[in-house]
UniProtKB/TrEMBL annotation:
It comes from Sphingobium subterraneum. Its cofactor is Mg(2+); [4Fe-4S] cluster. Keywords: 4Fe-4S, Glutamine amidotransferase, Glycosyltransferase, Iron, Iron-sulfur, Magnesium, Metal-binding, Purine biosynthesis, Transferase. Mg(2+) binds at S302, D364, D365. Pathway: Purine metabolism; IMP biosynthesis via de novo pathway; N(1)-(5-phospho-D-ribosyl)glycinamide from 5-phospho-alpha-D-ribose 1-diphosphate: step 1/2. This is Amidophosphoribosyltransferase. The gene is purF. CDD domains: GPATase_N, PRTases_typeI. The active site is at C16 (nucleophile).
Length: 489
């Protein structure tokens, strides 16, 4: 069995990244580059669909973008000036390719391709109704529900049918769709998952993160607003795009974890630099949870910006005490328990000359199962650290996510089983402290969390889900995710 990160199963994982471009000669090649920049959002499969004014062309494959979309013959076959694509995390086995996006269907209005980042929390319910009414599903993906809802809508125009479909789905969706009329990009009314718009000359570009614009030399224009549909008719320029807001006024709740971990630090999410926010998080963490130590040491790579912020605020020197090997690839064979333990040392090694005899404070973005934290603390002690303090740049992760992020069941989350003192014992640290929820909001420029109507989705910390989820919904989302992927973690 192959796995992406053989020793990195102790993180929440974003499940998808999307990219689309309308109005450029080399559309598929540009999408391939954009998806490459979004590879951190999903490493197990990728797909691109293009449109040349007459026909749609699709190529989907298991594996990374590089290796699948860097061959001339693949890109040349994806003809046309408009294309959209998708990277996804974690599908394996023989049934998986049918779930790789973009999904495509022939509707009465013509072809319809869809790339989706998020998770539709009532997909199983909708799917049962659709199947009862005669729909025949080709995949086990929640995204396919949208296609069938569009296909069976009683409205006349494609746009009205699409809006009718979206009004029936709940949960998280950032979408890029292509039809014979043009490209549609939209974000769910709560704006849970990100989506941004840019331009390259006259071409309009959409992506999960701005880092994908940097790679293709495009200019960032703005985030798509929660609940906004942006329509780019084929041949249109940025000046000609139309926007609709069919869901009325809904207070947005974008995912706060994008700022903590998912997005790349060189991206802008909802108008904020991820790097700057992470540094502010580290500074706030130092204010809330000071400790006497000789060095501030980041857990690479995601803990680095917060550790810089912690060091600057506390005055304790920032040093690289853990060196990460960049050569642990996705094709490493899933080892047994004993080799797994050795595996952490393959990926991370202690900088012994620096650490021996020192008191250190380790900064990480989050603790999910706690297994990697335990090994890293142990590695620091074996390298001679006299005290190992752990500071976490987010509140304890106590709840599962149902909005397009791979989380263990609650029973697998260390913070759902232990209080902070029990977690400290589990990872064998001298002290352990987390950022407060209000501290996280402060780092994002808010005064505090608005408890009645929080400004962000923070459900994995608070259990306060932005959409109503019954126990049955939760169980069904779990079933659906199981169906979607036989995960290797
Ligand atoms: Fe993001 Fe957590 Fe909300 Fe999921 S539950 S959308 S990871 S904040």
């Amino acid at each position: 069995m192959l796995t992406t990160h053989p020793f990195d199963d102790d993180k929440l994982r974003e499940e998808c990244g999307i990219f689309g471009v309308a109005g450029v000669d080399t559309a598929a090649a540009m999408v391939a580059l954009g998806l490459h920049a979004l590879q951190h959002r999903g490493q197990e499969a990728a797909g691109i669909t293009s449109w040349d004014g007459h026909d749609f062309y699709t190529h989907r494959a298991m594996g990374h973008v590089a290796g699948n979309f860097d061959r001339d013959e693949v890109i040349r076959a994806l003809a046309g000036r408009s294309a959209c694509g998708h990277v996804r995390y974690s599908t394996t086995g023989e049934t998986s390719l049918r779930n790789v996006q973009p999904l495509y269907a022939e509707l009465s209005s013509g072809g319809f391709a869809i790339s989706h980042n998020g998770n539709i929390s009532n997909a199983m319910k909708l799917r049962r109704d659709l199947v009862r009414r005669g729909s025949i599903f080709q995949s086990t993906s929640d995204t396919e529900v949208i296609i069938h809802l569009v296909a069976t809508s009683n409205y006349r125009t494609l746009l009205d049918r699409f809006i009718d479909a979206l009004k029936q789905v709940e949960g998280a969706y950032s979408l890029i769709c292509m039809t014979p009329e043009g490209m549609i990009a939209c974000r769910d009314p709560l704006g849970i998952r990100p989506l941004v718009m840019g331009r390259l000359g006259d071409a309009v570009i959409f992506a999960s993160e701005t880092v994908a614009f940097d790679v293709v030399g495009a200019e960032y224009i703005r985030s798509i607003d929660p609940g906004e549909l942006v329509i780019v008719p084929h041949g249109a320029t940025v000046e000609d795009i139309r926007t609709h807001r069919p869901f009325g006024d809904v207070a947005p709740r974008p995912c706060i974890f994008e700022h903590v971990y998912f997005s790349r630090p060189d991206s802008i999410v909802d108008g904020s630099s991820v790097y700057s926010v992470r540094k502010a998080i580290g500074a706030q963490l130092a204010l809330e949870n000071p400790v006497d130590a000789d060095y501030v040491i980041p857990v690479p790579d995601s803990g680095v910006p917060a550790a810089i912020g912690y060091a600057q605020e506390s005055g304790i020197p920032f040093e690289l005490g853990i060196i990460r090997s960049h050569y642990i690839g996705r094709t490493f064979i899933q080892p047994g328990d004993k080799v797994r333990h050795l595996g952490v040392k393959l990926k991370h090694n202690a900088n012994r000359a620096l650490i021996a005899g020192k008191r250190i404070v380790l900064i990480d973005d989050s603790i999910v199962r706690g297994t990697t934290s335990l090994k890293i603390v142990q590695m620091m002690r074996e390298a001679g650290a006299t005290e190992v303090h752990m500071r976490i740049a987010s509140p304890p992760t106590r709840h599962s996510c149902f909005y397009g992020v791979d989380t263990p069941e609650r029973s697998g989350l260390l913070a759902a089983k232990h209080n902070v003192s029990g977690m400290r014992e589990f990872i064998h640290a001298d002290s352990l402290a987390f950022l407060s929820i209000d501290g996280l909001y402060k780092a994002l420029g808010e005064v505090k969390r608005a408890d009645i109507r929080p400004q962000y989705c923070d459900a994995c910390f608070t259990g306060d889900y932005p959409t109503s989820l019954t126990d049955q919904d939760e169980a069904e989302v779990r079933d659906q995710l199981e169906l979607l992927s036989e995960r290797v973690v």
